[in-house]
Design a protein that fits this description.
Number of helices: 8
CATH class: Alpha Beta
Distance between the termini: 34 Å
Order of helices and strands: EHEHEHEEEHEHEHEHH
Strand order of the largest sheet: 2-1-3-4-7-8-9
Number of strands: 9
Helix content: 25-40%
CATH architecture: 3-Layer(aba) Sandwich
Shape: globular
CATH topology: Rossmann fold
Structural class: alpha/beta
Radius of gyration: 16 Å
């Protein structure tokens, strides 16, 4: 059992918190109540960023001391939304939210994952008709091992999880969010994930 704080209790955060609790972890889901994020991060071993990506850097940078030495799992994408509310552009072109977080939180082990799919797939990957991929980006091998174990608890098979390397590789997976609005407009809001077929 791992003590986990999920920052953000919308569709993404709520879905992850419920699934991780079902898997036997001690989970606290945090909304925007002042001070709640700091309290939860202080007592957790792993913190999951499921806050809207546009404001994630500011919110998490304010928790620098609480996140010191912790694993921060970043599942958000920092985007500028178009008129229809769907992602239209990246806030950090030539970089990524994960890189920005790692720079702002040098004593925290940031791991990017689960950001290349619609949120239902994060906790039910086997429901897709073909095997999906979950990608890991981060500097610390042990942190990535811990996050890989969490993904397995969420139903991801080991062979579906690909370690891309350092945190800089997150800019590639974050850019994949720009596929999403086009796929949704083309085929509707049905669960999907970006996968590598070999």
């Amino acid at each position: 059992m791992t003590t986990i704080a999920v920052l953000g209790n919308g569709r993404v955060g709520g879905n992850l918190a419920a699934a991780l609790a079902r898997a036997g972890h001690e989970v606290t889901a945090v909304d925007r109540t002042p001070g709640a994020g700091a309290a939860a991060a202080r007592t957790a071993r792993i913190v999951i960023n499921a806050t809207p990506g546009a404001g994630s850097l500011e919110r998490l940078a304010a928790l620098r001391e609480e996140l010191r030495g912790k694993i921060l799992v970043d599942v958000s994408n920092a985007t500028v939304d178009g008129p229809d509310g769907l992602p239209a552009d990246l806030i950090y072109p030539g970089s990524s939210l994960a890189e920005q977080l790692q720079d702002a939180l040098p004593q925290t082990h940031v791991v990017k994952t689960l950001n290349t799919m619609l949120f239902p797939v994060m906790t039910a990957p086997a429901t897709l008709t073909r095997a999906p991929d979950a990608f890991l980006s981060g500097e610390d091998p042990q942190a990535k091992r811990s996050v890989r174990d969490l993904l397995v608890d969420l139903g991801w098979r080991e062979e579906w999880i690909t370690d891309l390397g350092g945190i800089r590789t997150a800019r590639a997976t974050e850019a994949a969010i720009l596929f999403v609005p086009h796929v949704i407009r083309s085929s509707g809001f049905a669960p999907f994930a970006i996968s590598i077929t070999r």
